[in-house]
Automatic annotation (TrEMBL):
CDD domains: HTH_MerR-trunc. It comes from the Bacteria. GO terms for molecular function: DNA binding. This is HTH merR-type domain-containing protein. It holds the Pfam family HTH_17. Residues 1-21 are annotated as: Disordered. It comes from Gordonia hirsuta DSM 44140 = NBRC 16056.
Length: 68
């Protein structure tokens, strides 16, 4: 059985950082937002969750993946 990484919940300090939506990340990589969600589920791109349960991605993590 494989476990998938769980997304962290946004804390007040994280809220002050620039976080991107799956759609914004998808545009940056020219992929479908479902691909971005799959990257988050498999640990390729760390994600955090809003209090409402929506995924967000730290800009620094996205830039690091872009520069790989």
């Amino acid at each position: 059985m494989t476990t998938t990484p769980e997304a962290a919940t946004i804390t007040p300090s994280m809220a002050r950082q620039h976080n991107l939506t799956p759609g914004q990340v998808a545009e940056m990589f020219n992929v479908n937002p479902k691909t971005v969600a799959r990257w988050a589920s498999t640990g390729v791109l760390p994600s955090i969750r809003t209090p409402g349960g929506h995924r967000r991605f730290r800009e620094a993590d996205v830039v690091a993946l872009l520069n790989r």
